[in-house]
Structures are given as C-alpha cells and as structure tokens.
Q: What sequence folds into this?
C-alpha cells in the first residue's frame, strides 16, 4: 500500500535502482560485530559497585509440608549480608498471570519463596545475599530445609486429581472448545480412528541461563532491573504492583539476551527477590542462575497426553474430531495461565476442514517444575497429534497419506476462514494460504518420489530407511498493538525506538531493513532501541513470532511519516515542489535538476532553533502505532529421510526439507537461520530431549549429560524453501512471522518417517522417540500383530 | 576455602595480577578479575563449551580449570582474536555466513575452532565437522557455523601460511 505521492515519485524513477531497497535482501546482521568480538553485554557481564550476589536455596523435596527453613547457620557465615525465608517477605504477593478469560486459576499462583508447602524439587525456599557468589553458594548449602513428606507427589497428569489446598483440586479448570454436531459425525461415520499419543517434557534451554541485576536509586526512588526481555512493559507493571510502587518508579532494561524461546523473560520468583533485595538492603543485587537450577526452575513445557478420535467417511473426509487433552502444568500456574493447554486445542486442526469438533483440556497440576510456553507451544504437540491422526486414517482407508491430506485441506478460495475457535484470547481466522499449492511445492523441492524410491531400495537391501511428511499451520503477529518512535539525528542516522524485545533473533536488522527501505536510508545507519521501559511508554515485547509483523508495520508507518516530513522540508531547501523529490540512501534528490540535499541537512533544518524550519514542528521525527486484533497464519511442510538402526533403536535423520510460506520474507537468510535453529530444537524434542523424574519426584535430567540436545553431529543436511505465495492481508507488507515453523512439524515428521522406515504404520505414539522407547515399542507392536511379524526380521544398522 | 592467593595470568599477551581463592574457575577469573567477559559460562559442567578458551595452544573448557592452574600459561580468549579492530577471518566468516543469532555460544565456538586450526592448520573437513559437535548452540542449528568454518578452512588451505587470529 503505497501513497499516491510515493507511487508517483517512485514511478518517475522506475529506471533508477533504489539503493535502499532492503526488504527481501539477505543483508548482514547489524547485531553481529560486538558478539563475535567478545564485546557483547549479557546480564552476567554487567556489574555495579558494591553489588551483592543472590543465591537461591531450593526445595530438595517434590511435595510436602514445609516445617522449617532454618537460616541461622548461614547468616553467620563469612561474607553473608542477609538470608531470607518466606517470613521475611510475607508482604509480597504471589506472581500473577496475564489476563485470561479462563476462570479459577488465582489460588494456584507461585509465592516468591515457598510458604507452608513445597511443591516441586527446585522451588525457591530461601535466598542468600552475599558479597561474593562463591560465599553465597556456601551459605545456601548451610540453610536447612525441613519438609514433612505428607503426600505422595502426583507425577502424571492422567492420575486422579488430588488436593492442591483445602477446597482447591489439582485440576483448576477443564477448558472446552468446539462447534458443530460431533455426535452426528460419529454416528454417520464410515470409520472411526482413535489414537492415544503423548509428548514428553521439554524446554527452550537457552545457552545463557537466566540472570538479573537490580538497583534501587534512592535519589529518584526508582528501581532498575537489568536482564529483562520478552515482556518488559508487562513485567514492569506487575513488579510495580507487587512492590506497591508506581510503574513510573520501575524501569526494566534489556541487555544482550542469550536466547529466549518462550521461557526467558517471564516474571519469575528470582526477579522479584532480586528487586526486593536491592530495595531493602540498599545495595545492587545480582543473580545468575546455574545450569542445574535452570533445568529445575525455569519454565518447562510440552508434556501432554492426547486421546483423539476422528470420524471419517469412505473417501477419507473428516466428519468430526473429538479430543481429550491432559496437560501437565507442573506445580503452579505461572504468568501464562492456562494458555498452552488452551491453544493446544484451539489450534489443533491445522490446515484441515473439520465440520464438527469437540475438545476438552484437563489442565492439571503435578509435582514438577511449572510449565509455560516453549517455541511453537501447543503446535509442536498438536501437529504431532493431528498428523499422526491423518496417517492413521490414511492407513485405515488404504489411501495415500498425502492424498488424504489434500482431500481435507481448507481451499484457498475459502480464505479468510473462521475456525469458530479461539486461541490466545483471539478468534482463530486463517487469513490466507494455499495449502495444496504448498504441498506440491514441498514435494517437488524435496524430490518426494525420488526419496520414496531411494528409501524403498535401501529397505530392499535390509536397511530401515523411511520418508515422512508433516504439514502444519503456525500462527504469528499477535497484537494487540505496537508503538514505534523514529527520529533522524542531525548526522542523518536514524533511531527507532520500540517496546518490542530482542531474544537474539535478529530483530534489530529486520526492523532496520523495513524502516530503511521505507524511508530511503542505509539500513546500517538505523539503530533499533528495544526492551527498555524508560525509552518508550508502551510495548508488548517479543513472543509469538510477533516482532517483524507488529514492530515492522509500526516502523513502516513511522518511516512513511518521517519521509513525508523530510520531503516537505527538502522541497523548501531545494526550492521545488515535494512531488519531484526522491529520497534514497539518505539523500533527497530533485529528479529534474539533479539538485540534492542530505537527510542530515534536512534534520538540521528542522532543529527547533533553525530559521528554515518555518512553522513546521521541530525535529525530523514521528510516532506510529500499529493495532491488530487477529493473528496471521503462516504454514508449511517438513519432509525427512531417516534411517533406523534396528538393533540399537537409534534414529539417524539423514536429510531434511522445510517449506514455509511466511507471506513476505524481509531477510531470507535470517529466516533460514530461524528455521534451522528451530529445527534443531524440534529434532531434539522428537528424538532426545526429555525432563524425567523418578517416582519420588526427583528430577533426573538436570545436566546437559542427561538432558540431551542436538549437537552438530545430529543436525541433518537441511534445505529450506521460503515461499511468499500467501501474503497476509492483515498488514500492507503481507508479513507473517517466521520464528517457530522450524520446530512445529518436526515431531510429526520424524514419527511418520520412523513408521515408514520400520514399515510399521502407527508405531510411534510418543515423543521423544528415544532408542529405549523405540525398541520397547517395536516389541509391543509386533506382539500385538496377529500376522506374527517376526521380530528377528529387524536387523540392519545404519552406516 | 576463601583464602585468596595472588598470582598473575597472561591473557592475550597481557599480564593480569589477580588475587582469588584457589577454587575459583578460570572462566570466573577471566570474567571477573580480568574483566574479559567475552568468555561465557553456559553450564559449568564441561558440556556446552561456551567457556572454551585456548591455553598454551589447546582449546580447553575454562569452567573445568581453576584459575591458579593457568599460572605461567598463555591464555587466549575471544577478545584477542581481532587485531587493531580488524576481525579475524573466522570472526568475519561467522558474520558473513550468519553463523550466530544470540551470540552467546559464539566466543566458545570461535576459540574451539581457533584451537583446532592452531594445532593442525590442515585439519580436514570431517575432523572439523566432528569438532563442532563438542560445543552446543541452541539458536543456529549449526549448519551455518559449519559453513563459516569450512570457508575459512578453504582459505587457510589456499594460503596455508596464515594462522587465524594468532597474536602478532
Ligand atoms: S560452561 Fe564450560 S563447558 Fe559449559
Ligand atoms: S547463537 Fe545462540 S546459542 Fe548459539
């Protein structure tokens, strides 16, 4: 959507190459130089004079009555300034959750230090403040936590709910969603296909652990917190409420962030403890989490059990779907409330038309680390479930699985398509998409037929090689709003201030590209300031693949306004009409005369005291809002070729293909990077990663030796196809977010490829497919087959 | 345990006199006592490699070594790679190949690879790929890191006299 003026001025330059055409180019990232030079500034790198170090004492028990937290011995140890248990901070309320229409979650929020009961191993029960981090750790070891293990911990969300507190069950809510006549669908079905599936407990595991540094400025009575990210403004407001201050007295500052993936930047007990410490002890307080703590204290995610049934007609059309979900929330309701369970069933149906749907999500608390979002929340799980179901239906009806999908796709002519469902407190309306077209392109891109024959040939030689495809619909661009303030300085550089945040995903570059392209400047002269509540009044942060869409469009609008102001001023400086002017690479040109003036000179002419300014308002600056009620929906397909070692159960992913339509690609190589990185997490979730607990609730995956992530050795050769066939109608550039699609269908795809490799349809029923699980599942599967498939068929390794 | 001992550390060619308890790790001493915060700590148990530095020509995990153990050694960290503000070829290749996102793991990878090139400038492609699996990155999916490394390895082979980021 170009203004007429712009269209005119650009068309008169149609033969001139615009230097500032950055949207769609894989320009190098603006973020990189300090990071490769070791000059980054992560929260752990920042220190303040006289700072104290906090160390959290954590519960060693999964469930029980807290009899005493004895801090006596720790207090007198060298270098210790204070040791607090919950009695010392009893005036601080629990951590709240974001507004939601789901009722009844209030009693389940987490205190910043455990009171009365402990509910998971790793729960904060006391905090030590010391002059030195090593001394803080020594003292933390000396705090004695006395717990009466009066109940058996609940460790499976499918178990009978217990009592959280008197009158409050460990099932705070059952979320229901659906539409249409499901009973009729099942009554008239040609076949009913039912699956019992589950996904293990994973998390984002950024390489930088969490950290926080707080200082209370006594002169201005202002609390500063560094190390914030994701939702700085929301967190600021909640911290202010919890500490009974004005939001104007609290400032959150984002530094470099070593990965977020949904789990970092939520408000956690440790953030509040650091703030209260700084205020009460009158010294800055720093806290850096260690990895073991991270694994038992930062948000977990993903663990769900799905019982899903589909009614289909004889052509494979879905008539109805019925789904029962058990969501393992862990010990408390955190800032997300019940969003993951809610969106799991709200977005489950993906690309398929389903005439009737009924789903219920049992949102249940257990004695594990609390859970919330992790990259592609609800969709990694949901895509696994839905795509398993599609494969099962195809098998049942002896149809080609891709053909079955095609028959059930929502057609592009039906877009926008209202689902009659909600997710993330918005109505789900698929905005645009050509699902069938993408399937064709994905198959062609991967060489589907050739892959299938290669797998068949290798199987004929005794290898277990298989190919699988998983289709998915993502969501992105969550609103409601974003504000951008853009200012051109008198040297021609551009400052773009946004309330969004950066998690290391390259948002500064993407936003600079959009702004520079619109305004007509060099993108490397654009500085994007983010994640700082003191720099801008409002902001919604970085999550849900929203930044490129929300901040991107607000930046485009602001840049458009700045450009018009600049041309107007330049017209006077060049003594001509604005119509004949063209702004590119930081210089305004007059087309006919060839006269020009730099943006720096234009900015100078607009300085408050400039005599050239006339009655224009001072400054070359503009603010713009972008509001957006609905999310948009990128979509894609993953294809994998795997080889299974039938003796060890080891799965080697040999080749991988991702096709993803994101409407409009601002920086293709950054998007490819997002997809590759997402895929490494998706493959981890599909094959390796899992937080396990023993039957007393002790976590057994608290190091990188136990929680296995994908390394360079496991990452397959991967080809990425970025498509722009379905721009979003919800913003003028057609942008959709690309942060999550590398993860979404990985579990689904690996599962079906393994089934194919072992020629056992429906084999994989849970993720991750660890070697132990796979071997046990093969034995179980073969035992259940009446055609007496011989397990000793299964030899053959991958070399 | 908390008695401090005084000693000096030679890092990137500069001597630092520091006083710290014997139990302090090299990673912490570099970050706090030498103020070289480019060396990161991701796990403190020797798996992630974020803390990798080069000690006497070998890439080591600085979280698994006590600072006092590095007395008398030549330690090199990511801060020592660029010379007079000019990035080393490997650093530049990381930027050109989009081999980083959040950048937290990056110093560790750079030092890991530097250590390998120093020990064997002719290190082959397979060995390099194998080498990369000793460090963890949660953002990039490794493919672009491998591209960056292979690009530099090719250049090194072409001009085999060049050692990446060696102090002059
Ligand atoms: S911090 Fe040293 S290996 Fe992870
Ligand atoms: S770039 Fe973030 S961990 Fe590697």
A:
């Amino acid at each position: 959507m170009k203004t007429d003026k712009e269209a005119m001025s650009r068309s008169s330059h149609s033969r001139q190459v615009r230097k500032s055409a950055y949207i769609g180019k894989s320009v190098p990232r603006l973020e990189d130089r300090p990071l490769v030079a070791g000059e980054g500034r992560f929260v752990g790198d920042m220190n303040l004079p006289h700072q104290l170090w906090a160390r959290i004492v954590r519960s060693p028990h999964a469930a029980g009555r807290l009899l005493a937290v004895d801090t006596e011995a720790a207090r007198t140890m060298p270098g210790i300034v204070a040791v607090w248990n919950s009695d010392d901070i009893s005036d601080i309320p629990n951590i709240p959750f974001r507004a939601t229409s789901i009722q009844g979650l209030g009693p389940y929020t987490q205190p910043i230090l455990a009171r009365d009961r402990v509910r998971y191993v790793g729960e904060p029960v006391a905090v030590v403040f010391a002059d030195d981090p090593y001394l803080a750790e020594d003292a933390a070891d000396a705090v004695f936590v006395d717990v009466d293990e009066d109940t058996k911990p609940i460790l499976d969300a499918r178990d009978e709910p217990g009592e959280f507190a008197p009158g409050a069950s460990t099932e705070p809510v059952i979320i229901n969603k659906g539409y249409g006549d499901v009973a009729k669908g099942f009554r008239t079905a040609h076949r009913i296909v039912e699956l019992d599936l589950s996904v293990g407990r994973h998390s984002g595991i950024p390489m930088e652990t969490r950290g926080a540094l707080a200082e209370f400025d006594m002169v201005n009575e202002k609390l500063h917190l560094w190390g914030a990210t994701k939702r700085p403004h929301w967190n600021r407001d909640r911290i202010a409420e919890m500490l009974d201050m004005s939001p104007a007295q609290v400032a959150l500052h984002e530094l470099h962030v070593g990965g977020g993936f949904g789990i970092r930047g939520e408000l956690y007990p440790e953030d509040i403890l650091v703030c209260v410490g700084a205020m009460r002890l009158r010294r800055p307080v720093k806290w850096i989490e260690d990895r073991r703590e991270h694994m038992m204290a930062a948000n977990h995610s993903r663990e769900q059990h799905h019982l899903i049934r589909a009614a289909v007609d004889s052509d494979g059309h879905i008539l109805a779907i019925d789904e029962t979900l058990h969501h393992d929330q862990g010990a408390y309701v955190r800032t997300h409330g019940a969003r993951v369970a809610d969106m799991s069933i709200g977005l489950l149906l993906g690309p398929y038309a389903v005439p009737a749907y009924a789903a219920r999500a049992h949102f249940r608390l257990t004695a594990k680390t609390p859970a919330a979002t992790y990259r592609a929340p609800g969709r990694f799980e949901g895509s696994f479930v839905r795509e398993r179901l599609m494969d099962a239906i195809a098998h049942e009806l002896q149809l080609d699985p891709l053909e079955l999908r095609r028959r059930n796709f929502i057609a592009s002519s039906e877009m926008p398509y209202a689902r009659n469902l909600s997710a993330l407190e918005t109505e789900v309306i698929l905005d645009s998409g050509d699902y069938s077209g993408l399937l064709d392109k994905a198959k062609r891109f991967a060489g589907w037929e050739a892959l299938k024959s290669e797998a068949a040939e290798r199987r004929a030689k005794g290898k277990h090689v298989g190919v699988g495809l998983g289709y998915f619909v993502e969501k992105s661009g969550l609103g409601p709003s974003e504000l951008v303030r853009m200012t051109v300085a008198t040297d021609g550089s551009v400052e773009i201030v946004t309330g969004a945040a950066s998690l290391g995903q390259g948002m500064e570059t993407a936003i600079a590209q959009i702004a520079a392209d619109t305004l007509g400047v060099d993108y490397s002269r654009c500085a994007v300031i983010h994640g700082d509540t003191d720099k801008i009044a409002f902001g919604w942060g970085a999550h849900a693949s929203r930044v490129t869409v929300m901040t991107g469009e607000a930046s485009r609008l602001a840049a458009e306004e700045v450009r018009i102001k600049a041309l107007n001023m330049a017209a006077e400086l060049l003594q001509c009409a604005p119509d004949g002017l063209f702004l590119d690479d930081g210089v305004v040109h007059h087309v006919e005369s060839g006269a020009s003036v730099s943006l720096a000179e234009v900015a100078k002419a607009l300085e408050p005291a400039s005599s050239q300014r006339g009655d224009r308002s001072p400054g070359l600056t503009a603010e713009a809002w972008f509001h957006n009620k609905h999310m948009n929906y990128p979509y894609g397909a993953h294809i994998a070729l795997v080889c299974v070692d039938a003796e060890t159960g080891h799965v080697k992913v040999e080749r991988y293909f991702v096709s993803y339509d994101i409407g409009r690609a601002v920086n293709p190589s950054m998007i490819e990077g997002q997809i590759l990185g997402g895929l490494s997490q998706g493959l981890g979730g599909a094959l390796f990663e899992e937080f396990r607990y023993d039957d007393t609730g002790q976590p057994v995956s608290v190091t990188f030796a136990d929680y296995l992530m994908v390394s360079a050795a496991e990452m397959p050769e991967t080809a990425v196809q970025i498509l722009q066939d379905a721009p979003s109608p919800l913003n003028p550039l057609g942008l959709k977010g690309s942060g999550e699609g590398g993860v979404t269908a990985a579990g689904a795809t690996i599962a079906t490829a393994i089934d194919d490799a072992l020629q056992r349809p429906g084999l994989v029923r849970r993720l991750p497919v660890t070697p132990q699980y796979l071997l046990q599942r093969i034995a179980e599967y073969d035992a259940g087959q009446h055609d007496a498939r011989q397990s000793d068929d299964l030899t053959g390794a991958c070399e | 345990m908390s008695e401090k001992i005084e000693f000096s550390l030679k890092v990137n060619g500069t001597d630092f006199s520091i006083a710290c308890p014997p139990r302090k790790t090299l990673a912490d001493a570099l970050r706090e006592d030498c103020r070289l915060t480019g060396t990161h700590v991701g796990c403190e148990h020797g798996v992630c490699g974020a803390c990798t530095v080069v000690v006497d020509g070998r890439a080591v995990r600085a979280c698994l070594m006590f600072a006092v153990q590095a007395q008398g050694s030549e330690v090199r960290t990511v801060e020592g790679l660029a010379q007079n503000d000019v990035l080393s070829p490997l650093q530049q290749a990381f930027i050109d190949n989009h081999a980083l996102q959040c950048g937290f793991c990056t110093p560790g990878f750079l030092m890991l690879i530097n250590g390998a090139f120093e020990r064997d400038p002719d290190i082959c492609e397979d060995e390099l790929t194998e080498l990369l699996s000793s460090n963890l990155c949660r953002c990039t999916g490794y493919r672009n890191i491998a591209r960056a490394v292979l690009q530099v390895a090719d250049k090194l082979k072409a001009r085999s006299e060049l050692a990446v980021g060696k102090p002059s």
